[in-house]
Amino acid sequence: MAEAFDLEGFVGADVMALVALLEDQSLSGAVLSTLERCARETDYDSLSGVPQGRDVPVRSLEAHMFEVATVALRLADVAIHTWDVEIDTDSLLASALLHDVDKMLILDGPIGCHPPRFRKGYGPADHGPVGADVCRQSNVPYHICEIVRHHSPFVGGLPDSLEAALMLQADLTADYVAALSVGLEPFYRRVKTVPASGGGEQT
Ligand SMILES: [Fe+2]
Ligand SMILES: [Fe+2]
User: Fold this and answer.
1) Whole-angstrom Cα distance, residue 103 to residue 87?
2) CA of 131 to the centre of ligand 1 (A)
3) Which of 26, 61, 98, 108 is deepest in the core (most CB within 10 A)?
4) How far is the CA of 127 from the centre of ligand 1 (A)?
5) Do residues 148 and 95 lie in contact, with contact meaning Cβ atoms separated by under 8 Å?
6) Distance of CA 100 from the midpoint of ligand 1 (Å)
């Protein structure tokens, strides 16, 4: 039998409170199992010690997960009331909580480490596929694993669903605002403008 593991001690009460909002108990079990699988395998002592990543290395993955999931739920509320669309909030919340889960496994450096340091055998292109694989091993439904895999800019091709679109917007919003809040350059500044003539090649 596997040794007992203090998952709340590792991921923090805020993340656990968001997992508790999932209505589908089998999905909630799969999310907890994914988090525990990563927490057992990582070299980090807690989620609060894992860097968010390339754009805002001074923030923790714990804060980022909480922020993305919170923004995603608010966006869902706005979308439902503005466009009268149906959104599977369980799938949205689960994908927001899990989208960067693989950073526990592929990153190596401390918070503030820039550029990010990768664990031996891993590189930037593993972000997305590694997360999707670990979610799948923990019985997370396939459509959520695909959001996790394809939200990564190294993979692209995000699934054509409202849940995927809202998750990505929540991720971008959390990244932009967190970057500006600590005086870092948000990554949209590094995106080149499309030429006004329309004749140039988009870069
Ligand atoms: Fe990501
Ligand atoms: Fe993210």
Assistant:
1) 27
2) 9
3) 98
4) 7
5) yes
6) 5
Summarised one tens digit per residue, pLDDT across range 104-157 is: 999 999 998 888 899 999 999 999 999 999 999 999 999 999 999 999 988 989
Residues surrounding ion ligand 1 at CB below 5 Å = 100
d(CA 78, CA 70): 13
Under CATH, to which class is 15-184 assigned?
mainly alpha
Ligand 2 ion: nearby residues, β-carbon < 5 Å: 100, 171
Q: Give the distance (Å) from ligand 2 centre to CA of residue 71.
A: 12
Q: Residue ranges of the alpha helices (H) in the chain?
A: 7-11, 13-19, 25-41, 61-83, 89-98, 103-106, 129-137, 142-150, 162-181
What distance in Å separates the CA atoms of residue 89 and residue 163, rounded to the nearest whole number?
Answer: 8
Q: What was the pLDDT predicted at 82?
A: 98
Model pTM score: 0.91
- C-alpha 199 to ligand 1 mean position (Å): 33
Query: How confident is the model over 12-40, as pLDDT tens digits?
Result: 999 999 999 999 999 999 999 999 999 99
